[in-house]
Amino acid sequence: MDSALAVHRLHFAFTVTYHYLFPQLTMGLALLIVILKTIALKGQQKRYDEAAQFWAKIFAINFAVGVVTGIPMEFQFGTNWAQFAKSAGGVIGQTLAMEGVFSFFLESSLLGLFVYGAKRLSPTQHWLSAFGVFVGSWLSGFFIIATDAWMQHPVGYKIGAGGEILLDSFWGLILNSWTFWQYLHNMIGAVVTASIVMAAVGAYYLLSREFEEHGRIFVRTGVIAGTVAILAMLFPTGDGQGKMVARHQPVTLAAMEGQFETSSGAPIAVIGQPDTDKLQLDNPLLVPKALSFLTYHRWEAAVPGLKDFPRDQWPDNIPLLYYSYHIMVGIGTLLVALMLFSTWSLWRGHLFENRKLLWAIMLALPFPYIATTGGWMTAELGRQPWLIYGVMRTSDGISSRVSASNGLFTLIGFMGMYLALGILFLFLINREIHHGPPREPASARRGAQ
Amino acid sequence: MIQILWFCLVAIMIAGYSILDGFDLGAGVIHLFVARDAGERKQVLSTIGPVWDGNEVWLLAGGGTLYFAFPALYAGAFSGFYLALMLVLWLLILRGMSIELRSHIESHLWQPFWDFLFGASSALLALLYGVALGNVVRGVPLDSNGYFFLPLWTDLKPGPQAGIVDWYTVLIGAAALLALALHGCYWVIYKTGGALQERSRSFGAKVWWGVAVITVVITIFSFRLQPNISKEFADRPWGYVFPALALIGLFGERVASGRGRDFGAFFFSCVYIVGMLTSAAFGVFPYVLPSNGAPEMSLTVTNAAAAPYGLWIGLYWWIPGMILAGIYSFFVYRHFGGKVES
Q: Choosing among A11, A79, A99, which should be mutated to test the B contact, i.e. which has the most B CBs within 10 A?
């Protein structure tokens, strides 16, 4: 691999992976805050309003880090991927510019009102500002997914006389079938992250016997929302997304599953290590015929293996792709079990006393982050060796004039800066969790200020 | 021509960003000079607290619009100014964090640290934006594919071997720094009262002279360095309306400020900034990024633009989208209108 290519890939991979740790919480939390505010507004429930206030603070810190780490993402299309930016600009320029115009203005204006306006706005207006932040952040997610979906499954374009990529159908770009499943799978994944974070903080409060009234609200809301969301990750969104991959990127599916041979009645590997020299899966633990069934809903359906595709079409890092995918699925399965068991326990009325289960919920906190990261790595490594699937190779997209050395210099700079940012973030979040939700009645606070 | 229309719309986005985030940056530049204690510094910050994030969105939306309308310019300029742009990104990160994190902890260590970082990053950003503009006016060594790469500096001369930083671009950078500092000054004067306001007033009166002098200096050198400017103004004399705007703004802000019309001074400062930017855009036109060696290699409004189909489609969502954005901004500014509490 050419070293400039490796540096530019790592540059984008590092900055985008780090960035997405923050929006996945804010997008999910925006929905949960709207739910808390709705319960507070409808039922005149003061504790729910306090819960929403507490999460608004966590939201604001996450949002700030999300914004400052997000700006480099838009710029890097030009700085590190200039040839790609130039060729594909006529198409993805649309969705990226729409994100700025339609969602960032909405989000930032209403976030100012939501965070700074709590004491100036009426409860209904404040609810509306929370709702606007939710709409803005979910719109933003849509335009980014539409951009990525076009790179995964390019539609609505034509190749011009000079080889440039031209927009042919605006609605084709916006209504890409790939966008539909990827968007739902991604956004519901964000709800899973936020739900589990909320439940985990609640579990921490209950276990440490602090803010117990709010802790129960957090656990209850997080477990119920988390159960609904994690089940929707499995079906229909995960299933829909998987079928898109099977139909449009069959070689990617084979690599994700570590399937070297074409077979009818293909098994699923639960664990095992792909060996790309001997072209086999080492130490496999297989579920017979499961892959055929899950992909085509027929036990004997033929699933093409890697050997059926020319080598230059194979994703270039099959082991990492395979592990990312298996980590996502593995964690997802464990979270389904945890959430179902917690909901059952909540329904039976002994979740808040079941300290072992509360421990499990608290310790689950990092896992949705790992699963979403694994999911995105699956999507992006699976797209390789293409930058735009079937249209442009990744190696043809980099900035030809930016050397590996300059790329490495700024990559190291980002690593240093993001390390400092991460430490600050954890420090501030820890303080907010330690301070906890407001203790005094919300109405008295409003009067006092 | 649709390309020229989009050139104007991108110019509007850049001008919008400059006057809106411009006062945030300016407030950051001056707050270490005009605010004497922690309370006053907090006061300066609360003049921009609820709006700075929305103002910075103009950079993102403007960058997105530039990318959408002129992909070749976006790709060429962003990879060519790679090192300077990365510095801009790091400064934006530091500045954003210093505004958002400062008020989380009351401490004699925490707040002064972020205040200093806020001031320094704001000043360096203003300077770098000016340097970038200077590079566009001076021209860059574009190759036949529309790419280039500039080191941060070479011999500091704006010749064929120029780097991003040379004496001319630093001069434009200094002009941007002074103009935005003055702009921020007028904003703080408008939004505050008492001792802080008085100190900002006398500080602004001094900075105004710096802006006036440097405006003359950069005008002379820009005409000398970029022959296209004189040619454009000679060919299309109506273009003198842009420098006239800048002059009206420059003297208007002085007069309004002298009469205690604080919003008027801020308004004329906006006029000055818009006048200067549009003069530069007009002077460089039809180039969007001129070559400093071979004029035929330059990126122009036509050869850097996206295909017409996409540009026409864009009008259908861009115009309603920006009207909506204007409505949100109107509500936010109205909601947080009036003087900030001390």
A: A79
Question: Hey, what are A48's tokens?
Answer: 């729910």
Cα–Cα distance between A290 and A266 in angstroms, integer?
Answer: 7
Residues contacting A366, CB < 8 A, separation 6+: none
State the pLDDT confidence band at A109, using cuts at 50, 70 and 90.
confident
Percent of chain B past pLDDT 90, that is, above it, reads 62
pLDDT band at B342 (very low <50, low <70, confident <90, very high): low
Cα separation values, B314 from A96, B1, B69, B277, B307, Å: 12, 14, 9, 24, 11
Please give the structure tokens belonging to residue B210: 């710096």
Chain A residues in contact with B145 (beta carbon < 8 A): 400
Phi/psi at A261 (5° precision): -95, 145
Q: Hey, what are A367's tokens?
A: 């896992």
Please indicate whether, in this complex, the C-beta atoms of A166 and B309 are within 8 angstroms of each other. Answer: yes
In whole angstroms, give the CA distance from residue A268 to residue A284: 9
Nearest CA to A246 out of A280, A284, A292 is that of A292
**Cα of A270 vs its chain's centroid, Å:** 23
Strand partners, A159: A165
Nearby residues of B307 by Cβ (< 8 Å), 6 or more positions away: A90, A160, A164, A166, A167
pLDDT of residue A445: 42
pLDDT at B263 exceeding the cut of 60: yes
Q: How far is A178 from chain B (nearest CA, A)?
A: 21
ipTM associated with this complex: 0.90
Task: Give the bridge partners for A165, in sequence order.
Answer: A159
Every domain of chain A and the residues it spans: 3-448
Three-class SS state of A287? strand
Tell if the pTM clears 0.90, that is, is over it.
yes
pLDDT score of A448 more than 90? no
Q: Check residues A266 and B79 and name the one with the higher pLDDT.
A: B79
What is the rounded end-to-end Cα distance, in angstroms, of chain A? Answer: 61
Report chain A's mean pLDDT, rounded to a whole number. 90
Residues of chain A above pLDDT 90, percent: 68
pLDDT of residue B260: 87
pLDDT at A347: 94
A422 touches chain B (CB under 8 A): no
Measured distance CA(A69)–CA(A100) in Å, rounded: 15
Higher-confidence position of A439 and B114? B114
Of B105, B116, B90, the residue nearest B31 (C-alpha) = B116
- The residues near B276 (Cβ < 8 Å, ≥ 6 apart) are B179, B215, B246
Query: What are A332-349's pLDDT values in tens digits?
Result: 999 999 999 999 999 999
In angstroms, the CA B74 to CA B304 distance is 9
What tokens does A35 get? 């739910």
Specify the pLDDT at position B50. Answer: 80
Please tell me the predicted confidence (pLDDT) of residue A203. Answer: 96
Q: Which residue of A has its CA nearest to B143?
A: A401
- Enumerate the residues of chain B whose CB falls inside 8 A of the CB of residue A117: 50, 335
Q: Can you say whether the dihedral through the CA atoms of A113, A117, A121, A126 is positive or negative?
A: positive
Q: Which ranges constitute the DSSP H helices of chain B?
A: 2-34, 38-48, 52-69, 71-80, 82-101, 110-138, 167-191, 194-225, 227-235, 241-258, 262-284, 308-335
Q: Is residue A440 very low, low, confident or very high in pLDDT (cuts 50, 70, 90)? A: low
Q: Which of B54, B68, B145 sits opposite A105 (nearest CB)?
A: B54
Element of type H or E holding B288: strand B287-289
**Cβ neighbours of residue A398 closer than 8 Å, sequence gap 6 or more:** A4, A5, A8, A80, A81, A82, A83, A84
Tokens 């130490």 belong to A283
Report the 10 Å Cβ neighbour count for A206. 24
**What was the pLDDT predicted at A443?**
45
